[in-house]
Amino acid sequence: MDRAKFLNQEIAKIDGTRPSSHLAKHLKMALSPFVFYRGSAQLFYADLANRHLPVPEACFSMSLTSVMGDCHTSNFGFLTEEGSHGDTVIFTPNDFDDACVGYAHWDILRYLTSLSLVEAHCKGISEGRFLIDMPDPLKPAVDPHQVKHAQSLFIQEYVATCQRVTEDATVINEAMEQEPDGKLKKFYRKALERSSCGEKFESKSALAKAVHLTQDGLKFKHITDKYTPLSPAEHQQVLTAFAPYMDDDIVDITSRENAGTGSVNMRRFYFLVGPKKPHNAESFRYCHIVEVKQQRKAAPLFYFDNVCPVNRLNPAHLTARSQRRMQRRPDLLLDEVIWDNAHWLIRSRHHAKVGLDPHDIGMGNKARNGDFGYFAKLCGYTLALAHCRGDRRSTRFAKSAVKALNHHTNSALISSANHYAKQVIDDHTWFCDTLKNT
What we know:
Layout: H1 3-15, H2 24-29, H3 33-39, H4 41-49, E1 65-67, E2 76-80, E3 89-93, E4 100-102, H5 104-126, H6 144-167, H7 184-194, H8 201-204, H9 206-210, E5 211-214, E6 217-220, E7 227-229, H10 232-242, E8 250-256, E9 268-273, H11 281-284, E10 288-295, H12 315-326, E11 334-339, E12 342-348, E13 353-355, H13 358-362, H14 365-388, H15 396-404, H16 407-436
Antiparallel strand pairs: 1-4, 2-3, 2-13, 5-6, 7-8, 8-9, 9-10, 10-12, 11-12
Helix pairs in contact: 3-16, 5-6, 5-16, 6-14, 6-15
């Protein structure tokens, strides 16, 4: 099958249509190869299944574990543990929509590829080819040499962390929770300020940005293409279906539009939960947002559905299970429901969830002088911990990872990732050309 036919087929399989300029998700994916990669995780797994993306044989000797499924640089960041119920800010994986039980090399290879695509993204911005909104688009971008160094640091730290787990199983209870070095420091401080005890909680937290005070009390804002009020009939239907899963009074409900990248076309609702009244500074801190999101099958399972029986769980149940295992302190409100002929994931929204775009980590003198590699190293550390938590009864996974990920295997993974990044760039070019004719 030629590449164009393959891409059309695989994109339509997930999005219900071939590339179309009428689909918001596809317009988003056209921004850069990196954003295209984020929105088309299924292509990565289709290429793995077709052996278009080679994997060293040693990788298959690692024990199965819980994996992110859509592992890339923008799915790591700072957040408060326990969802909106905690205030400890850590650096960690922050997206489990495609999580399942699988091979660790899926996450490793996908992350390594994303580092190379960060360089393509940032270079395209600095050259004016990708129109991404940012303060200074002329900052210098990391180069291919710096990408390879960051890839090496990522996988070295991943293996070193697994080695530490084999020596002391309690290492899986660690987290990156201190102030980091370099340009990451401002993102950490931003998360601290937005936590419920932070000084900017009432103005910059996810809660504060989504709601406002009216004569009738707190309500979600009405923002076109973001927060859309429900009709009275739909409001009652949604309220009846999901009220039993909330942990306080339901103050308001809205439809959340155009959120995410890979799941931008999936339905979701936001519930404002907390004391109904009074609404003052003190009671505001007891409010939080609960997301109810339609969940589809994890991207790896379209091509690798027989890896583990656990993956036969319904999509929302599997996501919740995976998140509970991979996080040190999972969200306290995390559940799943079958409603309206679909599977729905229920989880509290973090008051402070600060992600990083490719240009946040790949542009500027600090990025070029070590911060890009430092970020990759942190990701290697936290991903290893998440994988090792897949089995809290033993260190079997950690031992198998240390044995499999030797110098030869790691070099082969990096080489394969960089080769595949070029394929993604070519696919993105084809995608953009195709959109122009729709």
